[in-house]
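I'll show one example:
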Amino acid sequence: MTMILRPDFEHTACDFCGNSQTEILFEGPDRLLNRPGRFRVVRCTYCGLLRQDPRPTKHTIQFYYPPEYEPFSIAIDDENSWLVRLDRRYGMIKRRRAVEQCCPGGRLLDVGCATGNFLYEMKRSGRWQVEGVEPNPEAARYAKERFGLIIHVGDLTTVNLPEKSYDVITMWDVFEHLHEPMTNLKIIKRLLKPGGWFIFSIPNIESWERKIFGKYWLGWELPRHLYFPSKQMMETMLHNVGIKLYKWKCIGGAYQSFLFSLRFWLEGVFGRNAFTHSIIFLSRTLPIRFLFSPFFWIITRLNRASIIAGFANVDFDR
């Protein structure tokens, strides 16, 4: 893997409508990993799609995905803390159950599978034949060696996969990272079997958390997040390639995302000090989490959590 010492940046037109005219919304740093630079979120003046511009190029953005990036996590069973194991396992089970409400089994492709924890959850159920696509070679290697998974190194625009072969394609917290979202949607349409499902999650622009924290909201995650479609815009993008959105549903992770947004706000307003560290530490304790659990249960049920999942089916009437 080539070491990128300095990323390159590019200005691009909107991937959906092709318009280059934008309105600047705000600028901010890399709040998650504190890598250098300031980054800008803009709105397309023609279709309204939010995006990062300028953005790191596809060939140098790996600078912002170091080994400590959270999705490159170890196997759940290898976690030292039983509480972390329980929390992560529960999250994977919820995803599996959400998928199986649409399709009880078959051939599944997870795009942006990272170290393979979701694929392993699907594999161990015994109902799925699974494969993954992952651009990070080290994460892909871990998934292959630790779980014995079939992983295609690259992205949907570079790997060679058979058309109309998958019952389900999943994309968890990945769509917003794509340099070419429309091209990826067209490929997904080609890869799915008739009646196949595309199940994905994206940052929820309509979440209460975004309205509360503004530019400190986790969902922006600059500079790794490149596009920020609203639910309505995402439905339009899917419809454009012949995929029909059937429902939206928040399926978990509300409290964890809140903790990140809270941390970014505290550090942005008060700085990194003992006060902010103590508030974040207290927020992670079980009593505090239990105290606020009814609120996060409500916002999840109302589809106002920070991450929302879409369930879409190939529309062969087009």
